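Whiteboard transcription, Tuesday session. T.W. wrote the structure tokens on the left side:
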């Protein structure tokens, strides 16, 4: 890890895509933004609230993409909407389905950039892992996304769009007149795909507000977990402005090791991070913080590490999620052995903390945690590697 690893937020969010004709995409606008846009498009002030509610339901409850299908709106109003707005999702470039049922979507967003979205079905729930950035400015040494050079923030529309396109693929929009289906295919959302969500706070917040809204997709705040590498100044806002659950990529029990694994630690070290977590608004036993801990052979997986971790957690309602390292081509680490992982888990558990070992999912399609990287970046990298092998590399 180079000491110059970027740990600042210096990426842009491209403006919301303005499709041909300057139409505004409705997807990802907050209620206030959409109301203002409706008025600007000629909706009388007095009707704006009602129209907003109707359109919101069509888009986010029923999953409708065509204004013509919004049958409770007058025909000429539907035409006015079509004249000013679109309802657009990022484009699914490819879909892979793992032997274990995990689905990975490669999604293209404005500018031709790509992000990955992963759906993980389980017996009693289904989790959608969404991305907040193309790539990541942080360079955690065990993470494939962190090796991607290109970075840009996703817009709120591109974040909400990931949820909507997965619902499309799973055929999860309600059917009018059909009985309500109580079990949801996408019951949980984790912001654990590509990117550092707290470096794209406003867009992530606005997107999650849309996803949580009761008149639409209506996923409760406790069904959403945001994972951060430890952007300390933004941590409290996660509780106050989004209200979702928090996971922290902890991964080490000494600053020396964490500096290597999660370089943002050089900016906000373990003690500073733990102070922010102790102060997390609304922290309680029913809303514990998840400490993610990737198990790297010979790096952070000793019994001493486990005991130190227990000491560090004291006083924080927490659970520890142990993630067997997911290897990727060229990765500088190996996964800890099963015995090591279990011994580590036992120590944490004996100290009174839940310590589940995450089952790697979708490994055959490179969909597991930390393996996400856009296909174009992978292709670029491999052509570089080929050039290097042929002695053509310029460094
Ligand atoms: N940037 C955020 C969220 C995305 S990463 C963060 O770092 O928290 C989601 C989780 O996967 C993080 O805990 C991350 O540290 C972990 N991870 C990254 N690469 C991994 C790998 N190769 N194997 C296992 N977990 C990994
Ligand atoms: Fe970025 Fe998270 Fe990967 Fe670190 S682990 S490089 S913060 S995506």
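and on the right, the sequence the group agreed on:
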């Amino acid at each position: 890890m180079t000491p110059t690893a970027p740990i600042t937020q210096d990426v842009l969010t491209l403006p919301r895509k303005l499709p041909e004709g300057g139409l505004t995409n409705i997807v990802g606008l907050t209620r206030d933004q959409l109301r203002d846009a409706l008025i600007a498009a000629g909706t009388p002030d007095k009707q704006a609230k009602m129209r907003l509610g109707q359109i919101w339901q069509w888009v986010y409850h029923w999953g409708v993409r065509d204004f013509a299908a919004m049958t409770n709106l007058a025909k000429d109003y539907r035409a006015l909407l079509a004249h000013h707005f679109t309802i657009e999702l990022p484009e699914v470039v490819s879909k892979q389905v793992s032997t274990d049922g995990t689905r990975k979507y490669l999604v293209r967003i404005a500018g031709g950039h790509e992000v990955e979205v992963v759906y993980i079905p389980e017996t009693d729930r289904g989790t959608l892992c969404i991305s907040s950035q193309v790539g990541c400015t942080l360079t955690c040494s065990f993470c494939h996304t962190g090796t991607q050079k290109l970075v840009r923030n996703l817009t709120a529309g591109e974040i909400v769009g990931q949820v909507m396109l997965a619902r499309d693929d799973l055929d999860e929009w309600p059917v009018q007149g059909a009985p309500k289906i109580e079990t949801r295919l996408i019951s949980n959302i984790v912001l654990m795909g590509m990117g550092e969500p707290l470096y794209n706070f406003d867009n992530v917040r606005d997107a999650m507000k849309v996803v949580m809204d009761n008149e639409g997709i209506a996923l409760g705040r406790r069904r959403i977990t945001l994972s951060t590498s430890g952007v300390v100044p933004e941590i409290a806002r996660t509780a106050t402005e989004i209200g979702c659950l928090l996971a922290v990529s902890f991964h080490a029990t000494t600053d020396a090791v964490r500096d290597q694994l999660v370089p943002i630690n050089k900016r906000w070290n373990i003690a500073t991070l733990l102070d922010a977590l102790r102060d997390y608004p609304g922290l309680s036993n029913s809303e514990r913080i998840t400490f993610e801990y990737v198990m790297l052979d010979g790096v952070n997986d000793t019994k001493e590490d486990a005991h130190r971790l227990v000491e560090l957690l004291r006083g924080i309602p927490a659970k520890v999620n142990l993630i067997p390292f997911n290897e990727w081509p060229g990765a500088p680490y190996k996964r800890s052995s099963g015995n090591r992982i279990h011994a580590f888990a036992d120590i944490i558990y004996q100290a009174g903390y839940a310590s589940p070992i995450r089952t790697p999912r979708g490994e055959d399609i490179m969909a597991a945690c930390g393996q996400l990287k856009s296909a174009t970046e992978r292709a670029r990298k491999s052509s570089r590697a080929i050039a290097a092998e042929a002695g053509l590399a310029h460094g």
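Someone added at the bottom: The longest strand covers residues 114-121.
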